[in-house]
């Protein structure tokens, strides 16, 4: 295999992994009402069909980032792809909603291995001058998966049933595993002698679980209820304990010394805030059209396509600009586009909402996301030494996923908290619930509040992105 072709062959392997992981999320967003109706799920169980995957994936991204730094990325990537494919097959046979939730958590382990190793593999394989192109293609593939995911998910659910949303992942996974075995080179781990920080992982998992559990319950039973208070207390206690553990750990889960570098710290903060603001938009819009406009899953899937088209456009535009302009300028401009899109959704969402304006709002959010992600990711990966890239990417992915899981829980909590008890489940059951005009108005108001909150979160992301400096050559010197 010629050296000049290897980066592109590697990119074809990682693209299949990204395609698999992204399809799994975007297809289920549209299929959720069908799954909930099939299992007659409660509001809390409905939330956890999505949240179980996101939570486990978020925590284990950091675990696997460190393990990959120690033992090498090829084997970890292939194990993750294989496990993800097998569990996807099993998800389609789930006999009840709680078995499905457990399988989703197991599926998240494979997803974490895929996500953790994809960007470092690309970063190691591509020369610095072409890295921006490689990363933008990687994001473009994810964008294509997001584009076809809601449509494919809606089509499969509408014509074949919800189980095919999971079974559809299987052939992609099988192809990816065999192609990866044939293509990927074995690269030794760069952090030999280091150990996994299990105390940090456990405290982080319990703390974040407490927060997500509280957010998933509060829209149904209120802030003063015992389960919500217990979840919030666990979050506070174990978050404090987590920082104490990390401060004293020899090989910490999060290397806080990396955050001494201002561009690195601000880029990661912008990553978290951007993910927190925009991650739930596809889910919210897909549910909105099924609940308020009584659309079937396939039609609803078509109506969330603009956001992923926007990500594709943004990724294509920015790929060639990363060598000409600073990460601060490109990332901040991207977030500004997302901000305008959020404002449009807040203004235009409603009963019989204009498909054009809702589409333009989604398109702007997508373009802004595509423009933001590539230079921001490149800034993070090139700011750290080679041997710390696995953990640096793990931190970036963890913050992005943490933003996504909190975004999902927070968004659904805001929408359901303004509704009377008899309407709370209607958010998840789609066209299966008959609504009178007063009920619909309440749901629309909840959506407006959500998008307004996301607008302000994007403003904070803009501030974080702008406050980094524009030095693209900064590299942290980390003692080993």
TrEMBL record:
UniProt subcellular location: Cell membrane
Transmembrane stretches, start-end: 47-64, 76-95, 135-158, 164-184, 196-215, 221-245, 266-292, 304-322, 329-349, 355-372, 398-419, 447-467
Topology of this chain in the membrane: Multi-pass membrane protein
Keywords recorded for this protein, A-Z: Cell membrane, Membrane, Transmembrane, Transmembrane helix, Transport
Major facilitator superfamily (MFS) profile domain sequence ranges: 10-473
Source organism superkingdom: Bacteria
Gene3D superfamilies according to UniProt: MFS general substrate transporter like domains
Main location: membrane
PANTHER family in the cross-refs: MAJOR FACILITATOR SUPERFAMILY MULTIDRUG TRANSPORTER MFSC
Family listed: Belongs to the major facilitator superfamily. EmrB family.
Protein name: MFS transporter
């Amino acid at each position: 295999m010629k050296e000049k072709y290897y980066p592109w062959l590697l990119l074809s392997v990682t693209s299949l992994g990204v395609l698999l992981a992204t399809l799994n999320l975007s297809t289920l967003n549209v299929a959720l009402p069908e799954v909930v109706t099939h299992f007659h799920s409660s509001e809390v169980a409905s939330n956890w069909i999505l949240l179980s995957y996101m939570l486990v994936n978020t925590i284990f991204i950091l675990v696997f980032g460190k393990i990959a730094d120690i033992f090498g990325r090829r084997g970890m990537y292939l194990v993750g792809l294989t496990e993800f494919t097998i569990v996807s097959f099993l998800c389609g046979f789930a006999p009840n909603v709680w078995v499905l939730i457990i399988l989703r958590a197991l599926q998240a382990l494979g997803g974490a291995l895929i996500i953790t190793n994809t960007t470092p593999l690309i970063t190691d394989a591509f020369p610095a001058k072409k890295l921006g192109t490689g990363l933008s293609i990687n994001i473009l593939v994810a964008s294509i998966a997001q584009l076809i995911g809601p449509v494919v998910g809606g089509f499969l659910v509408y014509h074949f049933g919800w189980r095919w949303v999971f079974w559809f992942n299987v052939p992609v996974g099988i192809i990816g595993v065999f192609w990866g075995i044939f293509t990927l080179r074995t690269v030794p781990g760069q952090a030999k002698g280091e150990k996994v920080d299990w105390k940090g992982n456990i405290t982080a998992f319990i703390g974040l679980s407490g927060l997500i559990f509280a957010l998933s319950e509060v829209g149904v039973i209120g802030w003063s209820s015992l389960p919500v208070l217990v979840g919030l207390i666990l979050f506070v206690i174990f978050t404090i304990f987590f920082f104490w553990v990390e401060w004293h750990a020899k090989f910490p889960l999060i290397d806080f010394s990396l955050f001494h570098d201002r561009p690195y710290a601000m880029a990661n903060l912008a990553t978290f805030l951007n993910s927190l603001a925009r991650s739930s938009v596809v889910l919210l819009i897909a549910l909105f059209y099924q609940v308020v406009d009584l659309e079937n899953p396939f039609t609803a899937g078509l109506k969330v396509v603009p956001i992923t088209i926007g990500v594709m456009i943004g990724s294509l535009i920015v790929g060639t600009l990363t060598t000409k302009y600073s990460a601060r300028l490109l990332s901040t401009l991207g977030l500004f586009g997302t901000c305008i899109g959020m404002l449009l959704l807040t203004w235009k969402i409603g009963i019989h909402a204009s498909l054009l304006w809702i589409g333009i709002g989604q398109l702007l959010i997508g373009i802004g996301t595509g423009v933001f992600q590539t230079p921001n990711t490149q800034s993070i990966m090139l700011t750290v030494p080679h041997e710390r890239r696995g953990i640096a990417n793990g931190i970036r992915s963890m913050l992005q996923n943490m933003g996504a899981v909190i975004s999902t829980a927070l968004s659904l909590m805001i929408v359901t908290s303004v509704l009377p008890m008899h309407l709370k489940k209607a958010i998840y059951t789609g066209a299966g619930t008959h609504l009178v005009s007063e009920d619909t108005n309440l749901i629309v108001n909840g959506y407006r509040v959500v998008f307004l909150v996301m607008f302000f979160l994007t403003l904070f992301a803009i501030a974080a992105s702008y406050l980094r400096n524009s030095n693209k050559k900064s590299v942290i010197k980390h003692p080993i």
